[in-house]
Write a structure and sequence with these properties.
Chain lengths: 120, 111
């Protein structure tokens, strides 16, 4: 299995530009998660989907951020307009289970390699 | 406020030695606790998931313990190897699947 695939791996853009990050989860997984990681704040959960439906987007920082999952094999995280404080590593993860609450092995999340975003 | 505190922030140990990382949390209600290993420049990798009723869970040389009464968890690494050098992140899942992350412990294993 190829694991979770993210693209691009690195993105450098200027403030005000639109940024789109892409994720392909592991085939057959039912849940998909978007995370952000910075040195100051560590890991943060932005949003997660179950069966392509957004379940909890309370971690999305503001309206400039949006995420979609049009089908089971693809998701995007969009930032428009981007700001320097959005600079971070963005991870996508997927799991077989329906969420995180059961603690079962099916809840195990598999992370992608991340996209390092730099907003100048 | 839900919090997860990890200690120490960083740790250097000699190859072959054992070490224990700590995680204290105030998350309530509690669903499960997870330990992740994150190598530099890579995504986190799940080591263990523990629910309220589990006291110990092992994954190779990694053993996690959970005391739900005192709200403490530890990750014990036995016979450390150079490849254990990484950040170790404690994550607590609370009610309504709220996720609280620790800031991590950075472990360096030296020859």
């Amino acid at each position: 299995d190829a694991g979770v695939i993210q693209s691009p791996r690195h993105e450098v853009t200027e403030m005000g530009q639109e940024v789109t990050l892409r994720c392909k989860p592991i085939s057959g997984h039912n849940s998909l998660f978007w995370y952000r990681q910075t040195m100051m704040r560590g890991l943060e959960l932005l949003i997660y989907f179950n069966n392509n439906v957004p379940i909890d987007d309370s971690g999305m920082p503001e309206d400039r951020f949006s995420a979609k999952m049009p089908n089971a094999s693809f998701s995007t995280l969009k930032i428009q307009p981007s700001e320097p404080r959005d600079s971070a590593v963005y991870f996508c993860a997927s799991s077989l289970g329906s969420g995180m609450a059961s603690g079962e092995r099916t809840d195990t999340q598999y992370f992608g390699p991340g996209t390092r975003l730099t907003v100048l | 406020k839900n919090q997860v505190e990890q200690s120490p922030q960083s740790l250097i140990i000699l190859e072959g030695k054992n070490c224990t990382l700590q995680c204290n949390y105030t998350v309530s209600p509690f669903s499960n606790l997870r330990w992740y290993k994150q190598d530099t420049g890579r995504g986190p990798v799940s080591l263990t998931i523990m629910t309220f009723s589990e006291n110990t869970k092992s994954n190779g040389r990694y053993t996690a313990t959970l005391d739900a009464d005192t709200k403490q968890s530890s990750l014990h690494i036995t016979a450390s190897q150079l490849s254990d050098s990484a950040s170790y992140i404690c994550v607590v899942i609370g009610g309504y699947q709220k996720v609280t992350f620790g800031i991590g412990t950075k472990l360096q294993v030296i020859p």
